[in-house]
Specification:
By secondary structure, the protein is mainly alpha-helical. The protein folds into two domains: 69 residues, no CATH class; 53 residues. It contains six helices and three strands; from the N terminus they run E-H-E-E-H-H-H-H-H. A three-stranded antiparallel sheet has the order 2-1-3. The radius of gyration is 17 Å and the shape is elongated.
Length: 140
């Protein structure tokens, strides 16, 4: 696993892998000379349907033959990317976890639901600001 997200090109844009960079919001890496040069070399623009991005923990899913470029993302950019790349049900739970910061009603129930849905402990901690031990204790 790498610490960088990856921009990559899919041969078939209909394949549900990654998200178009524009979906993840403004990404500072898209304006760097390295990314612009890579896009030019590939003959694509930032709006190309074949251009996708994946967070570091999912880059192993990129097909071997796909053209790819590692790109660093800020924590905020990475959080947005993970949110938009998640399946819809998980994305809704993540939104609830983010809203959780403002309200503690149903805390343990929400944390148990998130864990049961397969959201990793570290991601729940990131979204809620809770201590890892508190999240783990809620599952019991």
């Amino acid at each position: 696993m790498t610490d960088d997200a990856y921009l990559f090109l899919l041969d078939d844009p209909a394949v549900p892998l990654g998200v178009p960079p524009s979906v993840a919001g403004e990404l500072s890496c898209m304006d760097t000379p390295a990314v612009r040069a890579w896009l030019d070399a590939q003959g694509v623009t930032t709006t190309s349907p074949a251009l996708r991005i994946l967070p570091p923990e999912q880059t192993a899913a990129i097909p071997e033959q796909a053209e790819r470029l590692p790109v660093p993302l800020s924590e905020a950019e990475l959080s947005r990317l993970r949110h938009h790349n998640a399946p819809e049900a998980v994305a809704r739970l993540e939104e609830e976890l983010l809203a959780y910061r403002d309200c503690t009603d149903g805390r343990d129930t929400l944390l148990r639901r998130a864990l049961a849905a397969g959201i990793p402990l570290a991601r729940i901690v990131e979204l809620t600001g809770e201590e890892p031990a508190a999240v783990a204790a809620s599952s019991g």
